[in-house]
Specification:
The chain has helices at about 15-25, 35-50, 65-75, 90-100, 115-125, 150-160, 205-215, 225-235, 245-260, 260-280, 305-320, 345-360; strands at about 5-10, 55-60, 80-85, 105-110, 130-135, 140, 145, 160-165, 185-190, 200-205, 295-300, 320-325, 335. By secondary structure, it is of the alpha/beta class. The protein has two domains: about 5-15 and about 260-360, Aspartate Aminotransferase, domain 1 (Alpha-Beta Complex), CATH 3.90.1150; about 15-260, Type I PLP-dependent aspartate aminotransferase-like (Major domain) (Aspartate Aminotransferase, domain 2), CATH 3.40.640.10. The strands form three sheets. Strands 2-10-9-8-5-3-4 form a seven-stranded mixed beta sheet, sandwiched between helices. A four-stranded mixed beta sheet has the order 1-12-13-11. A two-stranded antiparallel ribbon has the order 6-7. The mean pLDDT is about 95. Bound molecules: pyridoxal-5'-phosphate (PLP).
Length: about 375
């Protein structure tokens, strides 16, 4: 065991001191004016981060719960939807659909690639009456970013479908403009760019999405958006929220407010550029993503290297957490995160640890 850990994982990410302090304060009850003030500040600051004047809902859940909440609140049993997949998280949207008896039209793209806007346009032309198109902003399994602005434009030009975006790893790391890009539902989680512990899910909804919510018939209870919106008017949540994590979120959002979104995105541009320069200089191994996101860099390991052992050794001996590949990429790539409260010096330490062990290895 090491005394100090450096987290370079793409969620959870390290926590700023003010967030740790906020989470360690004595608990307050959630049906009080004090909680109401804190909760309202979280919702208002989330609207700032989402770049929306629309409604933002908060749920006590992980990112997957927020994804599920979008499916069950926007869809009815016979709805036709398109799910664009570029990795593990698009596949998760498909699995959620199937769990609720829906059979989406899956538009798959090779791992490491982004969604091709033309292919989505053609699919929408061939399939009329699509209710919603599901997309990832950034796919954390591969480290790609999708051009959500262009994809949303195509969906709105070709159809009446809702644009539903999983920005669990993208929000507050990559530019995202909920209103300006006409996104209907954007879901996220607290533990990545939002610099908080895991435990909160959020959804931002357009007016058009609300009209659909009011008639959607898939079963739901815990994630019922209409109930959650009703409580929001009373500065409450319908059920007991993760109070300490809400306190952490309020503190983290104060940091993002003070920084401003443009500066936050620029910081992530710089951090990603720093990581990629260093990785190229010190390792010289190929990057995995064709259109890499600012959230992480996926690096392909040389054939003979056991990636799982490499990362386990670095964690055990140096206290540095770096993520490996998921599913068929397990052991074959590593994913070095550069989002949220991760700093240049954290990245330097991680790349140094990798370089010391990989010296001489060639992909
Ligand atoms: C893009 C994306 N979507 C969804 C999820 C699921 O979030 P959670 O693990 O909090 O359920 C993740 C988590 O890594 C993610 O990166």
């Amino acid at each position: 065991m090491t005394l100090k850990n450096i987290m370079l994982t793409p969620g959870p990410t390290p926590l700023p001191p003010s967030v740790l302090e906020a989470m360690s304060r004595p608990l307050i009850h959630h049906r009080t004016a004090e909680f109401g003030r804190m909760f309202t500040s979280v919702i208002e600051d989330m609207r700032f981060v989402y770049r929306t004047k629309g409604t933002v809902l908060m749920m006590t859940t992980s990112g997957t719960g927020a994804m599920e909440s979008a499916v069950v609140n926007l869809l009815s049993p016979s709805d036709l939807t398109i799910v664009c997949t570029t990795g593990a998280f698009g596949d998760r949207f498909v699995k959620i659909h199937k769990a609720f008896g829906l059979n989406p039209l899956v538009l798959p793209f090779e791992w490491g690639s982004s969604v091709n806007p033309e292919a989505l346009g053609v699919t929408l032309k061939r399939n009329k009456g699509v209710k919603a198109v599901f997309l990832q902003h950034t796919d954390t399994s591969t480290g790609v970013v999708n051009d959500i602005q262009t994809l949303s434009k195509i969906v709105h030009e070709e159809s009446d479908a809702l644009v539903v975006v999983d920005s669990v790893s993208g929000l507050a790391a990559e530019r995202l403009e909920t209103d300006a890009w006409a996104l209907d539902c954007v879901v996220t989680g607290s533990q990545k760019g939002l610099m908080n512990a895991p435990g909160l899910g959020f959804a931002a909804l357009s007016e058009k999405a609300w009209k659909v919510v009011e008639t959607a018939r898939l079963p739901k209870f815990n994630f019922d958006y209409q109930l959650i919106r009703k409580s929001l008017a009373d500065k409450e949540t319908p059920w007991t929220p993760a109070i300490s994590i809400v306190a952490g979120q309020a503190a983290a959002l104060k940091l993002l407010r003070a920084e401003g979104m443009e500066a936050c995105w620029k910081r992530h541009d710089a951090l990603a550029a720093h990581a990629r320069k260093l990785l190229t200089e010190k390792l010289g191994l190929p990057f995995y993503a064709k259109n890499p996101a600012n959230i992480l860099t996926g690096v392909v390991l040389p054939a003979g290297v056991d990636g799982s052992k490499l990362l386990a050794d670095i964690l055990r001996e140096e206290g540095i957490s770096i993520a490996g590949g998921q599913l068929h990429l397990k052991g074959k790539i590593f994913r070095l995160a550069h989002m949220g409260y991760i700093t240049k010096s954290d990245i330097d330490a991680g790349v140094d640890a990798l370089a010391r062990r990989l010296v001489g290895a060639k992909a």
